[in-house]
Structures are given as structure tokens and as C-alpha cells.
Amino acid sequence: MATVKKAEKTDKRAEKAAxxxxxxxxxxxxxxxxxxxxxxxxxxxxxxxxxxxRGDGVEMLVVKNTLARRxxxxxxxxxxxxxxxxPIAIVFAQDDVSAPARILSEYIRANRRMVxxxxxxxxxxIKAETVAELADLPxxxxxxxxxxxxxxxxxANLASVLQAPLTKLARTLDAxxxxxxxxxxxxxxPAAA
Length: 193
Description:
The chain has six helices and five strands. The chain is α+β, with helices and mostly antiparallel strands. Helix 4 (99-111) packs across helix 5. The model has no long low-confidence stretch (mean pLDDT 81).
């Protein structure tokens, strides 16, 4: 009987260690993580939110605070430990830094169920107000499109500036040709001497 309990305890420790390793790995590879208090949410609402997040390549994980604190410490985010109290969901994103904050903010506006507590941005712990500002940023695709448009504008201007002298030369040569044609006598007419 004692060996069964000891084996169960060892299994639970191994399971918890694996969970800590998984959370640590997610924290390290994520560009953004948002911590939100999910108090008062139903299972259906949590599932709905997870589906919305998954659509944008964002994951949400609900873990025990003790395990999350250990993972934060192991990942080098000791300052995050103070935020890990009460029912906390951690939302991770790898590519689009504004996606978790934006989706959570939209969900909170619609349902009034969650409260954003804090977050991580490129390895720095940020406050809830900063997460809200991050939510107002456009998506990565929109920002890249704007950057590309900004980069293309000087090139388009340069092309038109370089093309202008050639266009001017062509117009000048065409005007000169028309002038010479109008000054030449028609064919068969005697040349004036």
C-alpha cells in the first residue's frame, strides 16, 4: 500500500515537472504572453475564446499558479511571479505580438468576463495598461503592408523623376520633327533659292 502511494506521488511529481517544462518552453519561444483573470467564465465561454484565439495562431493555457511561477522563474521572468495569483489563463503568441491582446480585448468588450492582469512582450513584463495599448496596434500583416507601401513610395517617385527627362526629350524631339515637317516644302515643289 505504501509503495503504491509512493509510486503515485512520484508519477504526480513527474507530471508536474513535465508541465513546468512545457510552460517554460512556451514562455521562452513566445514573443507575447498575456495573463488574464478568467473568474466567472463558463466552460462554453472558455471554449469559444480558445477557438477565436486558435484562428489567429494564439494558444491559451490554464495552469496552476505554483507551476506557472516555477516556469516563469525557469524562463527568467521572475517579475512575472507576482502576477500569478487567482485563476489565471496565459495566452501565448509567437508571431503577431498584438494578436493575444487584441483578441482578448475584443472578447472582453463583448462579454465583460475576463480581466487582463499583465503580460510579457519580447521578454519584458508589461502592465495591463500597456497590454491595452498593444491591443490597439494593427495586426502584423497590416503593419507589414504599410511598411511596404512606405518603402515603395520613394522608389516610385525616383522612377518618375528619372523618367521625366526622357519624356521631356521625346516631346522636344517630336516638336522639332513637327516644326521641320511644317517648314519643308511639299514634295515636287521647287526649292526656294
